[in-house]
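STRUCTURE:
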């Protein structure tokens, strides 16, 4: 029931995107959402796919500090948190508040529908905030990075992505997104690229390329060190399921939705083309890599496909009829809530029941 009320509250808030109220009240509501969702994420106990993994990493960071091999940004956050209060509970609460606050601060800089996108992220990426807590933190930083893509400020973009990588090394691949700032193709070519990536994935072409890379790394393991071990852990394809029909259908529907509005929105919203290219690149990575290496494909494509949550509400810019605006919001909410439900029931034993440090179980 906790997840139901969480979804219901955020869904009701989302409809304020089409109601004309003073921006001051929207910001007040935003602060309220930040506080409530930070408590929802931060007060959890033994909930989330990586809860105990991060507990172990927290203990190691407290004990070994900079001698521990892990992302330096994560280690620094543990050191600061432990200096304030020596408690993993306090750390998860503080991390949740900072992660969600960064998102709340970043979104108004990149989209006119920042409140709705914020709600969609809190719903669909609930697993990232309650599971891999670093992921939610990095999302906010990468949103800032796209501001510098638009302004073509390459050094600031590089610095921002490196900051994100100090928390999660996998986000380094987002550096490639800077290449998309000037790419503008016809809808037919975009469709061809999308369909081609699905076919290439089915044929398993990437598996041969990746096997060749892994062989080189294995022969020079001392050179790559811990990075080789990390890559190997991401390429254990047989430990996880391959690409699912549900994911193909979902991404195909979303791509068609984004492509349908492409010609109009790339004129009305200058960042649309950049975000469209970023999301498409994420889909390409997912379709090409995931059939052979599910963990690797899902992990590296996430940093790009995440931006579909900014694209989803943007057709509200060109749709005038109220019933169409409502349909767009309902569709966006459906996509986000469906993703949340899929996360919960994929790891049901890790998310249900919802337990908190206060001892309340729902």
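SEQUENCE:
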């Amino acid at each position: 029931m906790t997840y139901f009320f969480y979804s219901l509250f955020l869904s009701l808030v989302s409809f304020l995107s089409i109601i004309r109220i003073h921006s001051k009240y929207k910001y007040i509501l935003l602060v309220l959402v930040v506080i409530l969702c930070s408590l929802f994420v931060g007060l959890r106990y033994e909930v989330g796919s990586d809860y105990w993994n991060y507990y172990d990493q927290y203990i190691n960071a407290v004990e070994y500090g900079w001698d521990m091999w892990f992302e330096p940004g994560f280690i620094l956050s543990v050191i600061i948190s432990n200096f304030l209060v020596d408690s993993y509970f306090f750390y998860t609460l503080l991390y949740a508040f900072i992660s969600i606050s960064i998102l709340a601060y970043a979104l108004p800089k990149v989209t006119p529908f920042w409140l709705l996108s914020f709600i969609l992220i809190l719903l669909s990426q609930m697993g990232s905030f309650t599971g891999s807590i670093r992921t939610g933190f990095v999302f906010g930083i990468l949103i800032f990075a796209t501001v510098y893509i638009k302004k073509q400020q390459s050094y600031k973009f590089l610095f921002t992505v490196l900051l994100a990588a100090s928390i999660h090394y996998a986000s380094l691949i987002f550096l490639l997104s800077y290449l998309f700032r000037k790419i503008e193709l016809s809808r037919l070519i975009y469709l061809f690229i999308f369909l081609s990536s699905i076919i290439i994935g089915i044929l398993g072409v990437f598996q041969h390329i990746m096997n060749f890379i892994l062989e080189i790394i294995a022969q020079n393991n001392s050179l790559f060190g811990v990075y080789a071990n990390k890559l190997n852990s991401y390429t254990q394809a047989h430990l996880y399921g391959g690409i699912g029909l549900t994911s193909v259908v979902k991404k195909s529907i979303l791509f068609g939705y984004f492509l349908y509005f492409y010609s109009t929105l790339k004129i009305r919203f200058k960042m649309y083309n950049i975000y469209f290219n970023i999301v498409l690149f994420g889909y390409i990575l997912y379709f090409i890599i995931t059939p052979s290496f599910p963990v690797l494909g899902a992990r590296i494509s996430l940093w790009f496909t995440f931006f579909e949550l900014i694209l989803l509400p943007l057709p509200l810019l060109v749709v005038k009829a109220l019933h169409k605006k409502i349909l767009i919001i309902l569709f966006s909410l459906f996509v986000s809530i469906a993703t949340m439900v899929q996360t919960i029931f994929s790891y049901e034993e890790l998310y249900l029941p919802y337990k908190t440090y206060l001892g309340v179980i729902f």
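REMARK: Residues 322-346 form the longest helix (25 residues).
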